[in-house]
Amino acid sequence: MRKPISVALALLGLFDSLYLLWTYTLTKPIMCFGGGCDAVRNSPYAHMGGLPMPVLGVAGYVLIVLLIVAESLVPASLAIEIRYALAGATAFGFLFSVYLEYLQGFVIHAFCTWCVTSGVVMMLLFALALYNVSRPGPEADPPAQIVQLRSYFAVGVLAILIGVPAFYELATHGETAPPPPPAATETTAAKLVRPDSHVTNNPDAPVTVVEFGDLECPVCGSEQEVVHAIRAKYGNQIRFVFRQFPLTHIHPFSERMAEASECAGEQGRFWEAIDKIYSRQSDTTTDEALRRDVTETGVDMSKFDQCMSSGAEMARVNRDHEDGVALGVVGTPTFYVDRESVPDVPTFDDLSKVIDQHLMMAGEQSPSSATPARPPTASVNTPPAAEKNSTASPGSGKSSPAPAESASPSLDLGQPPGGLLSSFQTGGGQVCSEAEAAMKQPTLIDSNQLRAILSENTKPLFVDVRPAKEFAAGKIPGAINIPLDEMPQRWGTLPKDRTLIFYEAGTSGDICASARAAGRTVLEHGYPYSQVKVYQEGLAGWKKSGLGSTK
Fold it and tell me: What is the C-alpha separation between 531 and 445, in angstroms, rounded?
């Protein structure tokens, strides 16, 4: 009688797994008797290696049914091996079920009735398999084998007669997941930005922009240009927040990437880490590649490795994902401006339009109406203000708002003749954004100061930020070429143990100039201030001063 009972239990488990697989793959409403099924289904653990977790259940229960039936049909010598194989299969299933129950109880903090049922079924099957090994029944003769097969057939027919209408009933009466809470509730605000969420630009700004992103998502990577441009354009007028939303069923390594960025954030390098990971998405799908990228942000790698091995930041990643699910996020990137969801993948103009509307409602003037804004393509190359100040506070291990750095430290940083205000002017008389002016500025040097640096037996690295075609036509000897539009992706290739001298054709007194923007980029990524210079006379000054020839 134990074998028909085992077959009945395995068919019950198979029914359970097939129903879950149907709801997972077709995203159908799920009939849940405990309320936690959708939370489990939408968690990062609902898929493994890109496959829905119920696939493993279906395969496991089919295997168990086949082993039980096979034992009754083979000779006694082979039946012993099948009994042990069945005990091993159910043991694995039982231990894996224990692991899944642990995830539900201590990581996801929600229980799915169907998952719990599967765990109970597997536990009973394991117990029966052990009993079958320790106390095997008598060897079945052909008439007894026919009786057993008839009992299996009866159990199978009964399972079909009960299972088909039950499946239909469940499929047509599933509980639809509750809709996201209304946009005007405090619940939405709490789920959009947590007290320890990663914040940059101005933490006290009147308008908040939130991005739910997947670090392995190619669309998110390309959208970084828009993100950097928006953060540069609006500066202190917005609070920019990043939330993790790894889509592990299509991007299996995204969860690991998210965890790595959070571990870097423990050391105050969150924004540097996501920029680096985004810039090398296709080449950052192994732990070794992640370590390479994070190393370039300047973190303590022993602390980073300890953080990654402990899984300390997974709860934070999961909470971000759960908040996104509760808000109705289904894909990445997803943006919110205050509590308004921005549809599709917004362009620079799309997102600017929404932000301008919210600034107007807050009584603020948008940059586009206050001062001429930089073109989006140029804004991409300048990290936003206050990014440095959004990193972790000492000992906290989390991103926390810090007072925005004022412009005053840059008052004595090698200003050109005419004072600070003149340095904010371009050749055409336009004024840069307050965000860029408030950022830490690289030291400006002229030809005499450059001559002094060269006489100190140092070997500075000249970095030409002009387009490659102009660089090929003439450069300072020994210079390398990193065009400004490539600086966000390539800043990490620059050494931190040498003086960096950025230059271009020869425009001076321009805070929006490419060389200054490049200098601001490396300063925002932790390069020593004393080693970042801008040769404001540029290539033209080099030729005129007689410092050397060009090649």
Answer: 12
- Identify whether residues 425 and 453 lie together within a single domain: yes
- 203 and 329 housed in the same domain: yes
- 213-265 residue pLDDT tens: 999 888 898 899 999 999 999 999 999 999 999 988 778 889 999 999 999 99
**HEC string of 481-522?**
ECCHHHHHHHHHHCCCCCCEEEECCCCCCCCCCHHHHHHHHH
CA 249 to chain centre: 14
| Domain containing residue 60 | 2-172
The whole-angstrom separation of Cα 23 and Cα 140 is 41
- For residue 394, whether the previous peptide bond is cis, meaning omega lies within 30 degrees of 0, is no
How does DSSP classify residue 253? T
Count Cβ atoms below 10 Å from residue 111 Cβ, excluding itself: 18
**Token duo for residue 187:** 């619940």
* Three-class SS of 440-454: CCCEEECHHHHHHHH
Q: Which residue, 286, 279, 231, 227, is CA-closest to 253?
A: 286
424-443: b (≥16 Cβ within 10 Å) or e: bbbeeeeebbbbbbbbbbbb
Residue 107 lies inside a defined structural domain of this protein: yes
- In order, the DSSP letters of 255-317 are HHHHHHHHHHHTTT-HHHHHHHHHHTGGG--SHHHHHHHHHTTT--HHHHHHHHHHTTTHHHH
At 101-151, the pLDDT tens digits run 888 877 766 788 888 999 999 999 999 999 888 887 766 667 777 888 888
Cβ proximity of 159 and 15 under 8 Å: yes
Give 405-420 as a DSSP string: PPSGGGGGS-PPTTHH
Residue spans of beta strands (DSSP E) within 101-258: 198-201, 207-213, 238-244
d(CA 95, CA 333): 36
Same domain flag for 354 and 229:
yes
- Cα–Cα distance, 342 to 332 (Å, whole number): 12
Q: Which of 372, 319, 359 is nearest to 107 (CA)?
A: 319
- Yes or no: say if 522 and 500 are a contact pair by the CB < 8 Å rule: yes
Both tokens of residue 153?
A: 């057939």
Q: Residues of 45-58 as b/e, b for ≥16 C-beta within 10 angstroms?
A: bbbeeeebbbbbbb
Alpha-carbon distance of 465 to 377, in angstroms, equals 15
Mean pLDDT of 306-325: 91
**Domain co-membership, 249 together with 307:** yes
3-state class (DSSP) for residue 68:
helix
Same domain, 499 and 377: no
Structure tokens at 502: 């950025």
- Are residue 385 and residue 417 in the same domain, yes or no? no
Q: Compute the distance between CA of residue 522 and CA of residue 515 in angstroms, rounded to an integer.
A: 11
- The reply to whether 397 falls in a domain is no
Cβ-Cβ contacts under 8 Å for 119 (sequence gap 6 or more): 97, 98, 100, 101
